[in-house]
Amino acid sequence: MAKPKNRLLFSKNGRACYISHLDLMATFQRVFLRSGVPIWQTQGFNKHAYVSIALPLSVGYSSDCEILEFNLGDDMPMEEVPARMNASMPEGIQVLACYAIETPMKKLDEIDWTVTIVYDNGVPEQAIQEITALLGQESLVIQKKSKKSKKCYTEIDLIPMIYLWEMQLSEGGIQVHARLMAQNPGLNPSIVINTICEQCPDAAPDFVRYHRNEIFDGDGKVFR
Amino acid sequence: MANAMNGKLERILLRVQKPARYTGGEYNEVIKEKSEVDVRFAMCFPDTYEIGMSNLGLRILYGVMNEAKGVWCERVFAPWGDMEAELRKAQIALYALESGDSLREFDFVGFSIGYEMAYTNVLNMLDLAEIPIHSADRGEGDPIIVAGGTCVYNGEPLADFIDIFSLGEGEDVTLEMIQLYREGREQGWSRREFLRQAAQVPGLYVPSLYEITYHEDGTIQKITNTAGAPERITKRIVTDFDKSYFPVKTIIPSTEIVHDRVMLEVFRGCIRGCRFCQAGYCYRPVRPRSVDVLVQQGIEACKDSGYQEMTLSSLSTSDYRPLTDLCDGLLEYCDPRNINLNLPSLRADGFSMSVMQRLQRARKTSITFAPEAGTQRLRNTINKNVTEQDLLQSCRTAFEGGCSAVKLYFMLGLPTETDEDVIGIADLAQKVYWTWKEYAVSKSRGVRITVSTSFFVPKPFTPFQWEAQISMEEYHRRVELLNHAIKNKSIQYNWHEMNTSYIEAVLARGDRKLGAVLEAVWKDGGHLDAWGEYFSFERWMNAFEQTGIDPDFYARRERTKEEALPWDMIDIGVHTNYLWREREQAYRSVITPDCRVKCMGCGANCLLPNGVCDEDRR
Predict the structure, then answer these.
(1) What confidence tens digit (pLDDT) does each residue in B499-508 have?
(2) What is the pLDDT of residues B104-129, one digit of tens each?
(3) Does pLDDT of B542 surpass 50?
(4) What percent of chain B lies above the pLDDT cut of 90?
(5) Which of residues 274-303 of B touch A (CB under 8 A)?
(6) Do B25 and A16 touch (CB under 8 A)?
(7) In 3D, which of B261, B39, B21 has the Cα closest to residue A33?
(8) Which of A80, A102, B128, B425 is the most exposed, fewest CB within 10 Å of its CB?
């Protein structure tokens, strides 16, 4: 298999949030074909456009920094790709840039999130303090379901995976600016929220929105 | 979809399976500026998104309406059980995917109904939309409820719930109805007056303007048209199929659907006249599209969708005269682009096999045929003109090409069927096995022959519309008989569950009295009845008992020629006398030649302006 040499940076917002990872890949395969952007196709029995989307986004989450890898054919300049593809997109997905791969994917270390914690009946009085105390510990070990482990779960410590968790009161809830470990292993912010629900039941939210703002490498530089 | 995408819906969507079914926003979805729209039409499909989005008719009407100035057609599908429960709990009325607006805000709510088991969904969707389910209870502010599709050729069980039935092909009549609605609004017509005027439009049937009286035995005494409505309503057809609208630029779902591919409609109607087939009579006359138009539509549809699969759709694609030319024209585009071309609905004959082999880029490992009956005598009775020789020859070609699985579809309970015919199915499957033994290129992998039987349901507007369905006990006996007759381990036998087919038989030839049954089933929680997860036979039987209606009266009773049938006010173009003649031919096991060999004068040609069907347009 040819190694992908191009990346797309794209956003996924609004109604598109509910498109699952697998459906999103199928959608992109079709968008490439219908927008006339030349893409390398797999050479197997059922030839299809090869696309790979890094760090799948959970259904319902929004993002401004998704990465898709593919191989662009020779006969189209990269800067033409976003406009071509955006004309054939479902609502809510927008290609922001197309460029050659320079940094390997494994350098992607951090994801910057906005987590909106919603309380229907106002923010509980002690919520921010309780969450601050919970996440301010030296370590916070939780059990995570695992397919690999014999015990069916593994223990992970959340604290070293949370680089930043800044909370601010906002209308109807708490707005969190978080910076979490991206991969190997990655930390989904819903795990932090679930831990809050378990350990600080008074601070359990009624609803939570998750949004990826940006991705970074280990040196704090924006990852592309 | 700003409206429904409020906080309530956002929370629900994360709790239900496959939420992308409920959001809209797909590529090619039509969004219009409300200030430029004066008629809003909610096109409802009484089944899930995956099924509904695979329906070509829905896509055609969506396109036709949205191309019209001032009209905005949006889509609505039946929510799955989990979503329905959430919607009800959060008190969110059923909404259209494009705008997110509740159905109550529309001028028209139209249902496309393709099978009887969707009837309870129609009631359920109206209720979810907070629209009164009974036509008689709706007032001036309520949308006009319309229904079309194959089922509404006899929509009588739904007569209490639907304001207007649209008969036949909706491309033209839907726009005429919308135009009439505008006129009515200008003139200040009441709802009642609009319906009376609509009844004057050819192809529109307003059930409330017809009074039905019954004999003591429950059969129909008289159908009386009132308020100037015509005595009979003739279905509408598109006369020039080359010029009629086809959706080359159509919605591409962002989530997987059943038919996730380009569909190309090669022709409408069917020349064959299989006597059990409702579509074969209702879609007459045959109207093909020309090769040039189809190739162009196919290429444009592929380009605009990004699909890598295309399927040629019709009732019997092998009967398209220039099929080879069409395939060549499409392959020229498809082959270099790795687009697969599929031909379902092929007959088991040499021509079809050669076309199929041509299309095969990869070796086909499985092939499907529908002989429908096990003996030649019974195949003649149902006018399924496939011979055993054709079938075995086709299997031989397939086996020689490396095919190692054959699926055979049959019906049990066909009129005049004897035990000999039932056992004939096992014999035929055995002969397919011997053919494999003799001609298979490689026997090491073995062969899988699957025999499937369904339970025959007599349908209106077929020569078998007067027939009784056999009892469930008898069906079961025949299933057992066949099951015991199949001894070969390479032959697997599947039979269709009989309860659904019985209810289907009741509804298919039902009259207005069944409205009460539908309502009782729905009130008892019935919906999504086409799905095994939701269908409950007990619920239906309870409803029959509760309403004092004998289901056998509809399913298991043979009608006489003289009996007035519930759908007698509907004219599909094919004469009732012709159907009766065909029934007599069936009992003599005499074949009727297809329309091309000889015109038998069914009457459908009169629907065309020049009175000639299936002209050779090559």
Answers:
(1) 999 999 999 9
(2) 999 999 999 999 999 999 999 999 99
(3) yes
(4) 89
(5) 303
(6) yes
(7) B261
(8) A102
CA distance B404 to B564: 50
DSSP, collapsed to helix, strand or coil, labels residue B353 as: helix
State the total domains in chain A. Answer: 2
SS3 A165: strand
Alpha-carbon gap: B337 to the closest alpha carbon of chain A (Å) = 9
CB-CB contact of B288 with B617 (8 Å) = yes
Query: Are B27 and A18 within 8 A, CB to CB?
Result: no
Residue A12 three-state SS: strand
A30 with B307: Cβ contact below 8 A: yes
Chain A CB within 8 Å of residue B446 CB: no
Please check whether residues A122 and A98 belong to one and the same domain: no
Distance in angstroms (rounded) separating the CA atoms of residues B543 and B514:
10
ipTM for the complex shown:
0.93
Same domain, A71 and A121: no
The C-alpha of A107 sits at a distance from chain B's nearest C-alpha, in angstroms, of 31
Domain boundary among A102, A119, A148: A102
CB contact under 8 A, B14 and A59: yes
Distance, C-alpha B540 to centroid of its chain? 22
Among A24, A32, A34, A118, the residue to mutate for chain B (most B Cβ within 10 A): A34
Residue A110 CA to residue A222 CA, distance in Å, equals 9
Asked which of A74, A102, A130 is the last residue of a domain, the reply is A102
End-to-end CA distance of chain B: 47
With beta carbons less than 8 A apart as the criterion, state whether B466 and B509 touch.
no
Domains of chain B: 7-234 (3.40.50.280), 254-361+588-618 (3.30.750.210), 363-513+549-571 (3.30.750.200)
- Substitution target in B50, B254, B302 with the highest count of A β-carbons within 10 Å is B254
Alpha carbons B459 and B14: distance in angstroms, whole number: 42
Domain that holds residue A152: 108-217
Query: Is A128 in the B-facing interface, judged by CB distances under 8 Å?
Result: no
Among B27, B254, B362, select the one facing A45 at the smallest CB separation. Answer: B362
**pLDDT (tens digit per residue) in B228-267:** 999 999 999 999 999 999 999 999 999 999 999 999 999 9
